[in-house]
Design goal:
By secondary structure, the protein is an alpha/beta fold. It has 15 helices and ten strands. Helix 5 links the parallel strand 4 and strand 5. It is globular, with a radius of gyration of 21 Å.
């Protein structure tokens, strides 16, 4: 069996230090140790610029050095992405472009100016034709998407093939959602002992890196055992792109890596971040767009740099995701409702406007404050209403 394993390593740039430390100690260090102990093991990684910045801030420069050594040894490959994990189809194109370029700059500073980034990871695998075109313009050659991008119905795509995106010309690898939503090493162990298993079988999985330790307890160290199985080979996504059979040209549909068939039928490809029926998300996007327009119309402001510093933190996908109130327990994730996390993003957005010095921004500041206060009122009212209903009635 040939395992194409793509891992997404990301933490919000403005999250609490203990969150970074917990994920790093439980998962990211485990992955580095696993690769170091198995010189023939290969994984494709997306390490977001935001995580690199927090590692540097929190003193994890030794871990960055370990990943650089693994990169130099040819055991990992890195991909491009958006530095602060904005949801690409829902933010202005120029903002997405800026974050692509900043992400590349951060990675080059950490891993070397000769770094080659041929592939690209879309935050949340949130795809649109326009986004794919921009990625191609920025010089990337392949994407990894969820299999539902191929067809409205799951299970229709052949994930052992490599496709070409009709919209952009990019090569596209599709992850198997069924297998990615399991604890993958246990699945591999079962497949390796199956009589139907073949040495030439491809298994393409893509998960958050936190699956391996933080989100799933693996006391039997199945991961460490399965990678030592001589019947298992691992390859980079970029290698798979070169050798896999072609699935032809496909016009992929807007989606994300957890889109449901019902959501796509309803024309809601980014439901967890922008649900038309979610008042808080709608109000937050209105504020975010207002803040962005205000800041980008004052690029000569003495504090433009600091305004953007706050903006990119507020634009992160988590600001909107934590307002979705969806249960992701089936993929080892949390219940996605946290007014504190939503408020964290709101604070960044309003501080972005507050940072501007130009006296002409007075009206914009007052408008932003009014929107901000209204969202907070709605957010906490919903929270306590839900709490009382669940616990006191």
């Amino acid at each position: 069996m040939i395992w194409i394993n793509f891992l997404h390593l990301y933490q919000p740039v403005n999250t609490d230090p203990y969150v970074i430390e917990e994920a790093t100690e439980s998962s990211y260090k485990r992955l580095a140790k696993l690769l170091e102990a198995n010189p023939n093991l290969k994984f494709s990684l997306n390490i977001t610029g935001s995580l690199i910045l927090r590692w540097q801030e929190l003193g994890y420069t030794d871990l960055i050095a370990r990943f650089k050594s693994l990169l130099d040894k040819g055991q990992i490959e890195l991909t491009g992405s958006a530095a602060y994990h904005c949801l690409a189809p829902l933010v202005p194109w120029e903002e997405f472009r800026k974050q692509i370029r900043e992400n590349t700059k951060i990675l080059e500073e950490a891993f070397g100016n000769d770094l080659e980034l041929s592939g690209f990871f879309l935050p949340e695998m949130a795809y649109s034709a326009e986004v794919a075109g921009l990625i191609q313009e920025e010089g990337f050659s392949w994407l990894i998407l969820d299999e539902i991008a191929y067809n409205l119905n799951l299970g229709q795509a052949d994930t052992s093939l490599v496709y070409q995106d009709k919209n952009s010309g990019l090569k596209v690898v599709l992850r198997s959602r069924e297998f990615s939503n399991t604890y993958v090493p246990e699945l591999i162990l079962k497949k390796l002992t199956s009589k139907k298993s073949s040495q030439s079988d491809y298994l393409v999985t893509a998960t958050d890196g936190e699956l391996y330790g933080l989100r799933h307890n693996d006391p039997g160290q199945v991961l460490e055992k399965v990678v030592k199985n001589p019947s298992l080979k691992t390859r980079f996504v970029s290698e798979f792109v070169q050798v896999a059979r072609s699935g032809g040209e496909v016009a992929f549909q807007p989606c994300n890596w957890e889109s449901s068939e019902d959501e796509l039928q309803a024309g809601q490809p980014y439901h967890s971040w922008h649900n038309p029926d979610n008042t808080i998300q709608n109000m937050t996007w209105e504020l975010a767009r207002f803040v962005y327009a205000t800041i980008e119309s004052h690029t000569t402001d003495p504090n433009y740099h600091w305004a953007r510093w706050h903006l990119v933190r507020g634009f992160g996908s988590c600001t909107f995701w934590w307002a979705s109130a969806r249960d992701f327990g089936y993929i080892y994730g949390p219940f996605a409702w946290s007014p504190d996390e939503v408020e964290r993003g709101l604070n960044e957005l309003v501080r972005a406007v507050r940072s501007l010095e130009d006296p002409s921004t007075r009206s914009a500041k007052l408008q932003a404050e009014a929107k901000y206060i209204k969202i907070k009122e709605t957010l906490w009212h919903k929270h306590w209403e839900s709490y009382w209903k669940a616990n006191l009635e």
